[in-house]
Amino acid sequence: MSTKLLHDLDALLLEVRNKTSQSYIEEALNAYRVGAFRSAIVSTWIAVTFDVLSKIRELALNNDKNAEKFIQELDAAISKNNIGKFLDIENNLLEVAAKDFEFISNIEKQDLEELKRDRHLCAHPAFKSEDELFQPIAEKVRVHIVHAILHLLKHQPVQGKSALDRIMMDLKEPYYPTDKKKLRSYVGPKYLDKSKPAFVRNLTVVLLKVLLKGEKDFVGHDEKIINTLIVISENNPDVFNKAIEEKIDSIVATLSGNEILNLFYLIDINPGLWRKIPQPSLIAISELIKNSGVSIFDTKVVLKGLRVQDVRNIIYEKLDLIDINQAMIIVQSNPCQELAKRAIGYYGSSGSFRSAENNGEKFIVPYAKHFSALDLKRILDYILENGQISNASGTKNILEKLYDDSKGILNQTQDYWGEFVVKRTISNIGNQNSHYSYPSIRRRLIEDEYPLSDGLIPADTDGWDL
To answer: Whole-model pTM?
Structure first.
């Protein structure tokens, strides 16, 4: 057998979650390495026993009723030094770990039951005749140590239904992060980092069902669910992808009515997931949007479909049928790259100073991070062409916000900004209201080391407030 198929015991030791459990299993490793195999087995069983009890204590501290009851009985036995109760607890410990708390699966329980049997043979040699003295072999001892760590010692204290219930309750709390970076630091250490693949798989499936079915208990928590699934896909890509492959068809089959539109959420998780949707469902989505009234936009998730080439034009056509005021509200409320051109169009058609300011706050400022370089050029061109925008007093503030919030593409847009400032400066020579030349934008360009040619700016602007 290739040694590459064997687990590195020292690496496994570092994965043990509880420091005391780690010290017990390290003692087992040291005994194993010097050939004290019976001692190694006994220490391994002690590590398992301690770890199960410590995990139950953790749950009790977190108000798990079953854990609290168990710990009360254990502490009562300790206070009375009830040896009989100790033996009873130890004898049933693996059953409790598997059935009551789901720390281990039934298969894992069988592996640890074998460790338990070997431990009894090692700890009670007097119960065997001299000729039958238990002599464990090195390979078997090694397997016991590996099973103890992989099945139990490296994992969080909750793995089964109780863990799923806890995270689903946690998700609805106001302290559960929505920001992906914070969520990664929260949900990783608390639920994912030391969890078994089976738990991660089940969590993926449950979250996906809740999201796609739009379950009432989780209305308003879509962003949290989506970002949690993103974190799972990044932390555990193999488990996540396998869960999707196995379950996506059966989950999609349960969707009815407008629920099928929730499949657009998959694009937020990973655009590649869209390709995993069964073809009949893709057809159904297109037909639903095409044959529905404008009320289809009451389900805001439909706008996520603008990122899907197959349905984008259908959604645009549906938007064109809506009253202009309703359409403007939809565009204002859902800033995204796919609606950017419409937002710019609404702004460019402003017919008065006040509407220019109002449209700028509605359609330019919220969209700033979604604009491409050409989108920004189009905005600046509209301002140059439309005096109602360029001479509105509020345009200065709108442009400042646009410049600051679109800095991510500044390397592509500096020339557009530079040309804009030069044209506005030249067109306002002699105008006492110098802010219409937007000197604050010129100042920003200079601060960002844009080589704005002063030769293009008339000399009598030198004293203008920048």
So the answer is: 0.67
